[in-house]
Specification:
3 helices, 2 domains, 81 residues, single chain, alpha+beta
């Protein structure tokens, strides 16, 4: 059975999995969050999110995320991962 074809994510994106991707999805469904982007994960948890692209002095491109919830205390410290 092709679980991906009937999944919500497949219907949203219109993506058809083939080969190993289909095998992995159909046989290793332990963590469905693996198929979502960071933006989708934050949204699904009720969090607000902004993405920024930062280019360092030596040319590296970094994608920085700002995540917060509406019930956070004003002035709460930032957390870096």
């Amino acid at each position: 059975m092709n679980y991906w074809k009937n999944s919500k994510k497949a219907k949203e994106t219109g993506v058809e999995l083939t080969g190993y991707d289909r095998f992995a999805y159909n046989n290793h469904k332990a963590d469905n969050d693996a198929w979502y982007s960071f933006n989708d994960l934050a949204k699904n948890q009720g969090l607000n999110q902004e993405s920024f692209e930062v280019i360092t002095e030596d040319g590296y491109k970094l994608n920085v995320q700002h995540v917060w919830s509406d019930d956070m205390q004003q002035g709460a410290p930032a957390v870096f991962f």
